[in-house]
Amino acid sequence: MTMMGWNHPYYSALLEKAGYAPFKHYYSARLERNTFRMPDRVRSLAEKVLARGRFHLQEFRRKRDLLAVAPRLGQIYNTAIAASHPDSYPYTAAEIAQVIRQFAQVAEPALIKVITYDGQPAGFVFGFPDLSAALQRARGRLGPWNLLDLAAEYRRTDSLIINGAGILPQYQRLGGNALLYHTLERTANTGRFRYAEMTQIADTTYLMLADMQTLGGEVYKTHRLYKRDL
User: Does residue 221 fall inside a structural domain?
Assistant: First the structure.
């Protein structure tokens, strides 16, 4: 799957036999354009927050403008993830630099949105065309024909992957969460995509999981993380 690991079902038995135990679950939720529903109260709050003038939605046309703010987005990602995943490890500076290099290869500027507060980045929504079908057809090989198929899938896919959405904790109670969902809707509602998938939502983020149901999303994948005490 695009930007996501996948294992055969029998892996779980092998891991448990080796002494590992289920530790945490992540979920992916699928939203369909025809059933996506933004609650009126959320939309109204997002509009009021924008009208006050401190929050803004930053959009991009050129990749170099997007890459200019990428290091700051890496820092925000670390902070936002740490707030909801206390047992996670933040990216190091070297890892952020590596992610940015990979990000530069696949990012489509129009699908990346940044929420700013008083001109400073405060949140983000990362959208990517779903290339999973072409990756599955390639069966792990990336020869010339497979690369051409990936390029064709990039243009024809009707599914959008949201692999990264968050806002700094200090802005959540200022209307930032409502603005985050407003931004998600704006990213997905380009007319190009029929589906949007919110990937790898941790089981500890109860509010996000509840909000996905409110928005019309259906959890249809479970990703299990295993742990073994040493």
Answer: no
Cα–Cα distance between 16 and 179 in angstroms, integer? Answer: 42
For 45-63, write each residue's pLDDT tens digit.
Answer: 888 888 988 898 888 888 8
DSSP letter (8 states) at residue 91: P
Number of domains in the chain: 1
Tell me which amino acid residue 67 is.
L
Task: Name which of 182, 121, 187, 183 is nearest 160 in CA terms.
Answer: 187
In whole angstroms, give the CA distance from residue 129 to residue 2.
9
Does some domain include residue 123?
Answer: yes
State CA 30 to chain mean position distance: 12
Q: Can you read off the two tokens belonging to residue 111?
A: 């699908």
The whole-angstrom distance between residue 184's C-alpha and the CA centroid of its chain comes to 10
Q: Please classify residue 19 by burial: count the beta carbons closer than 10 Å to its beta carbon, then call 0-12 exposed, 13-18 middle and 19+ buried.
A: exposed
Q: Which residue has the tokens 């806002």?
A: 167
Which CATH number characterizes residue 111's domain?
3.40.630.30
Q: 119-130 as b/e, with b when 16 or more CB fall inside 10 Å?
A: eebbbbbbbbbb
pTM over 0.90: no
